[in-house]
Structure formats: structure tokens, C-alpha cells
Amino acid sequence: MSSALTQPDEIQLGPLELGILADIASGLACSVIPDGQDGFEGIAPQGGDLRRFARLLHTPGYEAWLIAWEAAADLELHDHGGSQGAFYVVDGALVEAHADLVDLAPLQTLLIGAGEGRDVTPTRVHRVWNPGPARAVSVHVYSPPLSSMTFYDDQPGTFLTPLRTDFVEGAPEPGGAR
Ligand SMILES: [Fe+2]
Predict the structure, then answer these.
(1) Are 39 and 49 in contact (CB under 8 A)?
(2) CATH 3.90.78.10, applies to 15-34+46-162
């Protein structure tokens, strides 16, 4: 009998279903513990950055990040490079303005409070910000792990015009306030 083991990076996995990703995000949120001082375990303050993050998990099939948003932290309209995902607000609240690259409907805006989450389909684009005044903390899960993100114009007349693409290496959504 062979004793060879398959290395995790050699396993080929398709994207996980949205419902599973939402369960992973909400489940991980239960393990995130506020430290009572300046944030949550796993996220260290980094100077004056309004948005900080730490990767909780990375597998061939999906990854998960913990993100802390100070008041007014704002990530411009972006996609997820074809990955799908889910996010879950652990503390505070976030506002999401979202649209879709296929149906091209106007942006719709939602307030997402602690204990709530949203699915992110592969064609969903969104801008996410913390309306304040309190810090917000959220868990984000992507499958497959993020490889790139394209940022888009959100102005009338040029809505959804691509502005730039960032290739992701070790960080989710690097175009925000880092
Ligand atoms: Fe996003």
C-alpha cells in the first residue's frame, strides 16, 4: 500500500456553493473575540490605516479574512475576479452599495448590521464602507481564493467602466485604505 500523501496545494477543488461560504463566514465569526481594547484578536493596528485585515484561513478551495473598518473606511466599487463569496458583520455595521456586471441594474444600498451577512456572486460588484461612528468588524470568505480585483467607476454615464485591476497577493481587496 502506498504511503504517499497528497499535498494540499495539489488538490483541485471547484468553488464552494454560496450557502456553504455563508455558513463558513458566520461560523468563523463565532470564533472572533473582541479584545476589549483596540480591536479583535488577529488584527493589529497599523498606523493611521482605516482598514486592516488578517487572513484566518487559506485552503486550495477557499480563504477567509477578518477585516476591521474604522469609521469612514471605504472600499470603492469592485469585483472579486470571478471568485464568489460571502461576508458577515461581526461588530458594528457596514453599508454595501451593490450592482451586477450582467444585469447592469443601478446600485442598491443596504445597511448590514452585526449578525447579518450577504452573499457575493461571481458577477456582483460592490462598494463597502463603515458609516460609523463605531468600528466595524467583518469576516469575508472567497472561493476560489481571490486572484484579482477590478475597480469600477460608479458615476452616471460611466457606470461600471473598469478603472484598474489589482492582482491580489496575500491580501483581500488591497485597493482600500491600507
Ligand atoms: Fe468585496
Answers:
(1) no
(2) no
pLDDT digits (tens, 9 = 90+) for 120-154: 999 999 999 999 999 999 999 999 999 999 999 99
What's the CA-to-centroid distance between 70 and ligand 1, angstroms?
16
Ligand 1 center from residue 153 Cα (angstroms): 15
- Rounded distance from Cα 79 to ligand 1 centre (Å): 6
> In Å, what is the CA distance from 3 to each residue of 11, 12, 41?
17, 20, 38
DSSP letter string, 93-135: EEEEEEEETTT-PPPEEEEEETT-EEEE-TTEEEEEE--SSS-
Find the farthest-apart pair of alpha carbons in the chain and give their distance in angstroms, rounded. Answer: 65
Q: What is the 6 CA–ligand 1 centroid distance (Å)?
A: 32
Q: Domain segments of the chain: what residues? A: 15-34+46-162
- Per DSSP, 15 falls in state P
Q: How far is the CA of 142 from the centre of ligand 1 (A)?
A: 9
pLDDT surpassing 50 at residue 177: no
Question: Considering only CA atoms, which of 177, 75, 72, 76 is closest in space to residue 134?
Answer: 72
